[in-house]
Amino acid sequence: MKISTTRAAKQTKKISKLFKRIFILLFWLLIWELCSLFINNTILFPSPFGVFKALLVLMGKIYFWQSVGKSIFRVIVGIILSIVIGIILGIISGINNFMEELMNPLIVTIKSTPVISVIIIVLVWVNSSNVAILTNVLMCFPIIYTNVLQGIKNVNSDLIEMAHIYKVKRSYILKDIYLPSIKPYVISGILMCLGIGWKICVASEVLSTPRYSIGLNLLNAKSILETEELFAWTIIVVLLSFIFETIFKYYIKNKTER
């Protein structure tokens, strides 16, 4: 009986949370509609209905799905490479002080360089379809690297010293001490990259204009003053970023519970 009551309470809480989110969404849609009515110019600020209508029209076209698919591919590849490079270099730098000092100028330089400058430089190096991937790696890997390095630095030094005293193999120290310790830092870094990655990818696509990309469609919509379509593509970017973060959080939550 007690378990049944607890389940009912959880279900009620979930429903309440859902209604709360729907109310918040409707509230901001109303604000959007009121702003649109006040400005009274669809070129400057279209209505929600006009934008969603444009979105439905776009979704019926093949190039929409080709563009979205290609952009998703670029973001995924860029973030995966950032995670791999950031973790490897972060662990090495965390264990080796010289490597940390060697990497420090590079990390500081990348963090200080404006994204637009990085995109323009990368445009010189690679073809348009790979600009977004390389820019994503250059801007996101320092985030993973810094988080991993911080995680390594926060590992209990007494635990490492004891492992050395008992002559534990380095592979076991890495697998059983360092990796579990940096896990929360890596998760935090990935969540940051999932949000930033989409912004960097779309900005890179706007400048590099690969054939199928969300960025190119944003640029085209702006060029012909199709503001409703411009808003529609922007909503797609926001939704994709939100979906990526939600899926990752759900995966981590399930893994933690298991």
From TrEMBL:
Predominant location: membrane
Record flagged with keyword Nucleus: no
Source taxon at top rank: Bacteria
Subcellular location: Cell membrane
Record domain ABC transmembrane type-1: where: 68-248
Transmembrane segments: 21-39, 45-65, 72-95, 115-145, 230-252
UniProt keyword list: Cell membrane, Membrane, Transmembrane, Transmembrane helix, Transport
Record membrane topology: Multi-pass membrane protein
Cited Gene3D superfamilies: MetI-like (1.10.3720.10)
Pfam family, one: BPD_transp_1
Similarity-based family: Belongs to the binding-protein-dependent transport system permease family.
PANTHER family: ABC TRANSPORTER PERMEASE PROTEIN MJ0413-RELATED (PTHR30151:SF0), ALKANE SULFONATE ABC TRANSPORTER-RELATED, MEMBRANE SUBUNIT (PTHR30151)
Protein name: ABC transporter permease subunit
UniProt organism field: Clostridium brassicae
